[in-house]
Structure of Prefoldin subunit 6-like:
Amino acid sequence: MGTSTALRDLQRDLENKANDLSKLQKDIAKNHQVRKKYTIQLGENELVLKELDLLSEDANVYKMIGPVLVKQDLAEANANVRKRIDYISAELKRLDATLQDLEEKQNSKRDMILKLQQRIQSLQAGKAKA
């Protein structure tokens, strides 16, 4: 295989890996966006829970369903908010695990790209000498 063919193959490989890296970076950005949304929701729900904990057992609690306020049992409201907090926390944990995986892939892809660039450079340097 000639140097120019080897060089072309390496450059094609480099392009593919650069595209993969770009996709990984988009996925990481998306993960951060979703995490931000869930973190805000978690804060809001924890605030609601604190407010519910301050109420006496006979307090009136209302839940908004569409444009309508519907009376809700305090214990039920409390349980619902706790369930929501558990769900959001689980989602955040899942997002963290996914992010860690994506970042590891990103680092590995960067290393591969660096090695490819070095190989291309050394091939080009060798070609220049010839």
Notes: Residues 74-129 form the longest helix (56 residues).
